[in-house]
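thread: overnight batch results

M.L. [08:02]
morning all. the overnight job finished for the chain we discussed friday. pasting input first so we're all looking at the same thing
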Amino acid sequence: MSGESAAGTRQRCIAHVDMDAFYASVEQRDRPELRGLPVLVGGTGGRGVVAAASYEARRFGIRSAMPMTEARRRCRDAVCIQPRMSHYQAVSRTLFQVFREFTPEVEGLSLDEAFLDITGSLSLFGSATALAQRIKDRVREESGLAASVGIGPNKLVAKIASDLDKPDGLCILLGDDIRAALDPLPAGRIGGIGPRTVERLAGHGIHSVRDLRAAPESVLTRVFGRFARQMRQRAEGLDERPVCTHRPDQSISAEDTFEGDIADPAQLRGELGKLCDRVGQRLQRKNLRGAVVAVKLRRDDFSTFSRQRRVSPPLGEAAPMLRVTAELLDTWLAENPGARLRLLGVGVSELSPATQLSLFGQGTEGRDLDQTLASIRERFGDDAVARGRARPRD
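M.L. [08:03]
and the structure it wrote out:
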């Protein structure tokens, strides 16, 4: 699309780079025999979900987060692959190195998605189109993968632009092109508007971004409350959020959906130990500690509960985390005797940098063991070792 700013102007220019079907594309890159085939990456057990679907699979209506059983029903010829997260993380590091060739202002949203503030780089390439194409070329040169790039005057427009021409797309939305591109889109394409809000808007006759932009203030206030003005601005393509180079972690968590429902408290505590090990490892990698520890519990009827506790001093090791979460779990099980769980999760929030060990070693419980486990996993993978209590029963 047209509407570029002239080279050298200081209008803010933001790029949104989104890798196409990232996990599936990596698998097709690494295994040429999979190219052109419907590929599903995700849990292959009875309760697995799709983490990524190739574009060949998407033609069957398959999307991320769909139960794998439903995906297989829709496409019986799909090739199902277990995720290789450490491998995808390594590919992601290569991608972000490429992004930083163009600007130091890179805000990562996930392993395969980022905002780039390229305002200061435009003059080097002559136009937004040339710069976007160069990003795509460098991504392909270094990773062998296709990326869709959208460019706009802000994060909202750039993200929408990157999705308009997928896969392997390039879309520039600047100037007069912004309203022409946004107005016909469904209102749900605006960030912050989920399925339930889409239904409420439809009840007021608001279906498109154009409808949202022209809606009476009274209607927007009923739907969005104090965010009414912000949502109208977004419908107008306005967004003042900066690209944040450093995005501090708000929480660190891990969860597992079991192959079969679990009611045995001892077995659940074993699963809890695995989750605490994973969360503790991530906290140590990032040199963080957390002041709030939580457990997430999902019953066989899909009802979901959470329990949390504030701890002092903040913790960053698996052993004290397991003690707290086990108490939370036991209390909930006592309140819900005979409950069968399909999912269990552990999370730590209110994070802060880990301080030096105190003179008397306060807060060091399990640190040596955690560090040993972490070093083994760093070399051989996350599933290479677990604590004795976390091993499954024979």
